[in-house]
Design goal:
The complex is a heterodimer of chains A (450) and B (178). In chain A, 13% of the residues lie in helices and 41% in strands. Chain A is built from 2 helices and 33 strands. In chain A, a hairpin with a 6-residue loop joins strand 1 and strand 2. The radius of gyration of chain A is 45 Å and the shape is elongated. Chain B has 1 helix and 10 strands. Chain B starts with a helix and ends with a strand. The longest helix of chain B is centred in the first third of the chain and has 57 residues. Chain B has 2 domains: 58 residues; 115 residues, Sandwich (Immunoglobulin-like). The relative contact order of chain B is 0.17. Chain B is α+β, with helices and mostly antiparallel strands. The chains are: A mainly beta (450), B alpha+beta (178). Chains A and B meet through helix 1 and strand 3 of A and helix 1, strand 1 and strand 2 of B.
């Protein structure tokens, strides 16, 4: 019995070994197959990755002696091998050729020059060409030669600003968008045709200068090139200048473009904008007067060390209607400062406060009652007098000369600069509590006490 | 009696054991043979599938250039498109079909004798570039596809070109006719 059991065990073991061996062999084979497939997938992914890493740019394209000469920069991270160049004469129907370039390898970051120089193709400047470079990985890049005229490009004309002061410059901007599928090379604009619309029947002018840049070496598909000109315009009263092109780009497609009208404007001070440009209160400098005796005198030089009073004429440019006036405060004044530091190194202003009036023979002033003078809005003109030594006083500013007690007043042989300082309130009637307080300094002119 | 009886039981036991052993051997051999055959079939199927898929993913075809021919066939017919293909992979590729805007190309232009399009490859006379074609690695080939009248490639409109290989790989690109 023992020997019989041994026999069946051996038979069973043999079958088991056969089954196990077959299974292990199959599994091993399957693993090997799967490993090979996995390696193929990895290799394919690597190839696809390399295809994506392969990047290059057309740096420049020139046509010396009617031969193509392109320069390419490898901007990717893998070497590039150019295997073919396609040349299509798009001016001639059905003219397509392919060539194998002689210099065709460029390393990452490197530059490959003289591409196409040895091709048996003569580039006719009167015809346009599509050139396509093909790499060993199947990537392609196409550019065009002399072909900006082959189809219309997206070109826009803008002007910034469209309204400029007469004699100033506006910027004419040409935006060229390469909406084609090819890289454009050597793009230069033509000069604009400037048209003047003389509305005011004067002599407006319109000139262009300063094309920047003069040329783009390449414009890749989808990218934008911008050219600018300085347009100087003069004129008034609705005159305008318009820039236009019938063929915007040199050798390009004929497409009419017109810029927005550029309108020159005169620097004007109208009644409604005068206060914005010149100030709410303005001084008529020609009406400046001074007196040291029996009459008012012009000129900006007068004897020093002598009692002096002043007269100015101001305008209220506030356009707020409704009977409002600027009621002047007694603190309104003219003050002078010496233009050089005196020997005692102390600059002391000489101040003349607002007075009601100036009397002659003898020279005197009448004290100013606070808020008693109102200058009407919307262009009211009023003559003011200054001469008091303190607000509302009827004493004149002292002009002691030499070693007297300060204030010394305007000294002989000294030049001064001064300002008019006006305080007041815009109300309908003197002393009204409503309305807004107002203060303004007006640059004065220099005077010389001789 | 005991010895005789013992002898009979021994004989039957031996016979039974022999029968059992034979049965086990026969059945076991049959099972092993059957399973080995199945495993072999699985191996072959797995191998074929793996090789097919490996070759398929290794296939790489670049549609290198599309040239729209205006006057091929007849003047301004605009029905011929020259599609240049390059095998950029590491295995040979059999190009079986080209579609232009979902239209399966079944005619190929040839111009040796006179301008004509043929659905046979090679055409009745003259040289032509037609399908199917097998491309070795790095090899380029231009197929002169011809759309049947009245179809034309449309100007200034993107056309979609689809290339199919015998292994089922599909490569596609777009090009704009002039």
């Amino acid at each position: 019995m023992r020997s019989r059991r041994a026999l069946s065990t051996v038979v069973g073991a043999v079958f088991a070994i056969i089954a196990l061996t077959s299974t292990v062999t199959y599994v091993s084979y399957s693993m090997g197959i799967l490993d090979n497939y996995n390696q193929s997938v990895i290799t394919k992914n690597q190839q696809l990755s390399d295809v994506n890493k392969e990047k290059f740019q057309i740096a420049s394209v020139t046509i010396p002696n009617n031969k193509l000469n392109a320069t390419v920069v490898n901007t990717g991270s893998v070497p590039i091998n150019f295997t073919k160049i396609w040349v299509q004469n798009t001016t001639t129907t059905d003219w397509v050729r392919s060539y194998v370039p002689t210099n065709n390898l460029v390393l990452p970051g490197g530059t490959l020059t003289n591409i196409g120089k040895t091709l048996p193709v003569y580039i006719n400047s009167a015809k346009s060409y599509n050139i396509k470079l093909v790499t060993s990985r199947g990537n392609t890049q196409q550019f065009t030669v002399n072909s900006v005229g082959a189809q219309p490009l997206n070109i826009q004309l803008l002007a910034f600003p469209t309204t400029v002061p007469s004699g100033f410059k506006s910027e004419l901007v040409m935006v060229v968008i390469n909406n084609s599928t090819s890289t454009l090379v050597n793009i230069s604009p033509n000069n604009p045709t400037l048209s003047i619309n003389n509305v005011s029947n004067d002599s407006p002018t319109c000139t262009s200068s300063g094309l920047t840049p003069t040329q783009y070496a390449t414009i890749s598909p989808g990218t934008t090139a911008i050219f600018t000109w300085d347009i100087t315009v003069t004129g008034t009263g609705g005159d305008s200048c318009t820039a236009s092109f019938t063929t915007p780009l040199q050798g390009g497609y004929a497409q009419t473009l017109t810029s927005p009208a550029i309108k020159p404007t005169a620097v004007s001070l109208s009644s409604t904008t005068y206060s914005q440009n010149s100030g709410v209160i303005t001084n008529d400098y020609t009406a400046f007067r001074w007196t040291q005796g029996a009459s008012w005198k012009t000129d900006w030089a007068f004897p020093g060390c002598t009692t002096t009073d002043f007269q100015i004429t101001i305008s209220n440019n506030n356009q707020t209607a409704g009977g409002y006036s600027l009621w002047l405060s007694k603190n309104s004044q003219i003050f002078f400062m010496p233009t050089t530091i005196p020997s005692n190194a102390k600059i002391t202003p000489t101040t003349y406060y607002l007075v009601n009036s100036v009397t002659f023979s003898p020279l005197g002033v009448t004290g100013y009652a606070d808020n008693s003078i109102g200058v009407p809005n919307q262009g009211g003109i009023t003559t003011l007098y200054f001469g008091a030594d303190s607000p509302g006083d009827n004493q004149q500013t002292t002009h002691a000369c030499g070693n007297g007690s300060p204030p010394y007043g305007l000294q002989s042989g000294t030049s001064y600069y001064g300002s008019i300082v006006l305080y007041g309130k815009f109300t309908k009637n003197s002393g009204d509590n409503n309305g807004g307080n107002y203060a303004q300094s007006i640059p004065f002119l220099a005077v010389i006490a001789n | 009696m005991r010895r005789i009886g013992s002898s009979r039981r021994g004989l039957s036991t031996i016979v039974t054991a022999g029968i059992m052993l034979s049965a086990v051997a026969v059945l076991g051999s049959a099972v092993v043979t059957w399973s080995n055959g199945n495993l072999k079939a699985f191996e072959i199927a797995l191998s074929n599938t793996a090789i097919a898929n490996t070759n398929k993913i290794t296939e790489s075809v670049a549609i290198e250039n599309i040239a729209f021919c205006s006057n091929c066939g007849s003047a301004n017919s605009k029905n011929v498109t020259n599609v240049t293909l390059t095998n950029t992979g590491t295995v040979s590729v059999k190009i079986t079909q080209i579609q232009l805007n979902s239209t399966v190309i079944s005619s190929y232009y040839y111009s040796k004798s006179y301008k004509y399009a043929s659905s046979s490859c090679p055409p009745p006379s003259g040289m032509s570039t037609c399908l199917p074609v097998t491309l070795s690695p790095k090899q380029s080939y231009t197929v002169s596809t011809s759309l049947n009248y009245p179809k034309t490639w449309g100007s200034q409109k993107p056309d979609t070109i689809t290339v199919t290989t015998a292994r089922g790989s599909i490569f596609t690109t777009q090009a704009a006719p002039p």
